[in-house]
Amino acid sequence: MALAEPAELAYERAFADHWTDVFRFALAWTNDWGAAEDLAQEAYLRLWDHRGRLDWTRPPLPWLLVTTRRLATDRFRRLRRAVSGAESTATTLSDEATRARWLDVRAAMAVLSPLERSALVMTALEGLTYDEAAKVLGTTAGALRAAVSRARTKLETA
Amino acid sequence: MNRSPSDRILEEWDVAARGVVQPAEAPRRRGLVGLAGPGGLVPLLATAVVVAVAVTWLGSRAGVDVGTASPTPTTSEVAVVPGSPSPGPSEVVVVPASPSPAPSEASCETDLRAAITSWEGAAGSRIATVNLTNEGSRACVVPQVARPSLVDGSGVGLAIGEWTATGAGVELAPGERATTLVQVSNVCPTTEVVAPVTIQLDFKDGFGLAVKPLTPTDTTVPPCNGPGQPASIEMHPWEPAR
After folding, report:
1. Are A7 and A52 in contact, with CB atoms under 8 Å apart?
2. Hey, which of A119, A133, B81, B95 would disulfide with A147, CB 3.0 to 4.6 Å?
3. Cα A52 versus chain centre, distance
């Protein structure tokens, strides 16, 4: 059997190691399970397209998260969902307990903007520093700190 | 110790998000693009084309006088481009037979980055200078028809423009920039404006560019001159940046 190319092996490893991270970031940004699945899928397809040109000696997760954010900030997607007004079709939300839990927490997180949700999740749950999260979100550490503070306040008073 | 409401919501979010099921296989692009990478079908086809061209060329040389025109592929040729600094091998791609690759609008989606470099107030309006940079590695034609919008950080459209012809396609070499002015007026938000306020550019072929805001905390919008009247947003044609 022929050996896989190094770039393909690196791509497979990135999928095994980071797909959940990418999904969770997309979920935080969109607050939409189905859209997060779509974004994670598309981000990995972009990684697949670029696999021959990436420096695989560097961690691929920052590249994946920035790509996911750029894809997510496409207003075309947002308006399409705003018009539909409903959660996108989720392919892995079949378990009833998970679905019920998600709908509750989705409603609670809906008071936050995408930046506030992402900033809060990345720093409080994913363990990123303000500087690291700010780079992914295309903003400054100061603005990110303010977004986290606003998010906390909104959730406390909601 | 009692958890705060925000910690409790975050914990529930964490538990819910752990319920996701990772796809069994990593996504791979189907079709020519997906086949063009290392290990794909295109390298095999490319190798076959190289062999066929070589055989044809050798055959023609064997049968004719030296000095006749050497054969060239008619529809496409195969080029081996140097490998990237990454550990991957050299990549084989199929390129058009033209002397140099034609600029491709299709490549713009991933290669173009836009940023607001200034906002200026003017008689009830705000005018943004928007720079567009080709951050890719090949020339790129800026799509000729675009629709500008003013959006806030939560994706609310504060002003939605019309499809606008932005001039004959400006071609950007790697690293080159184009610039335009976007004028916005009469924005009367019905909800709190979330930072950052920025401009979104949609193009006719379905992709959009979120323009990097001037600052990540910008919530400034033009004055509301006529409540109940629609907001206005217009963009000028692209011009090469000096």
Report:
1. yes
2. A119
3. 24
- B56-B59-B62 Cα angle (round to 5): 150
Neighbours of A86 (CB within 10 A): 9
Establish if A11 touches chain B: CB-CB under 8 angstroms.
Answer: yes
Output the pTM of the full model: 0.51
DSSP B15-38: HHHTT----SS-----HHHHHSST
* A77 membership: H or E segment, kind and range: helix A75-84
What would the pLDDT profile of B178-226 be if each residue is shown by its tens digit? 999 999 998 888 778 888 899 988 776 556 677 889 988 888 899 888 8
Identify any residues that bridge with B202 across adjacent strands, giving them in sequence order. Answer: B147, B208
A20: exposed, middle or buried (Cβ count in 10 Å: 0-12, 13-18, 19+): middle
If we measure between CA atoms, which residue out of A99, A117, A86 comes closest to residue B17? A99
Cβ within 8 Å, pair B4-A12:
no
Residue from B27, B79, B169, B161 nearest A67 by CA: B27
Please report how many Cα atoms fall inside a 13 Å half-sphere around the Cα of residue A157, on the Cβ side.
Answer: 7
Task: Flag if A11 and B212 touch (Cβ within 8 Å).
Answer: no
Query: b or e along B209-238 (b: 16 or more beta carbons within 10 Å of the residue's beta carbon)?
Result: bbbbbbbbbbeebbeeeeeeeebbbbbebb
ipTM beyond 0.85? yes
User: Omega before B196 cis (within 30°)?
Assistant: yes
Burial class (CB in 10 A: 0-12, 13-18, 19+), A110: exposed
Question: Which phi and psi (to 5°) does residue B76 adopt?
Answer: -155, 160
- Spatial distance between the Cα atoms of B186 and B159, rounded to a whole number of angstroms: 9
Nearest chain B residue (CA) to A141: B216
Under DSSP, is residue A56 helix (H, G, I), strand (E, B) or coil? Answer: coil
